[in-house]
Specification:
With 63 residues, the chain is an all-beta fold. The chain has a domain of 43 residues: SH3 type barrels (Roll), CATH 2.30.30. It contains no helices and 5 strands. Strand 3 and strand 4 form a beta hairpin. The termini are far apart.
């Protein structure tokens, strides 16, 4: 995360629904909508304020 913005590939949780997904764009400016691919495969846009980092996400290290 740079400058308080989400980046492509960041794992996020949508505050309102607790859905989890992956940020699908890296063309973010402060206040922009963030495109997120949800675990269901659906792609939606969310206000940046509606997202939080998925603190529970453990990347697959291939071990």
């Amino acid at each position: 995360m740079k400058n308080g913005l989400f980046e492509y590939g960041d794992r996020v949780v949508i505050d309102a629904t607790d859905e989890k997904g992956t940020v699908n764009t890296n063309q973010l400016k402060d206040g922009d909508l963030v495109e997120v691919e949800l675990e269901s495969g659906e792609v939606k846009q969310f206000n940046e304020d509606d997202l939080a980092y998925d603190e529970d996400f453990q990347p697959d290290t291939g071990e």
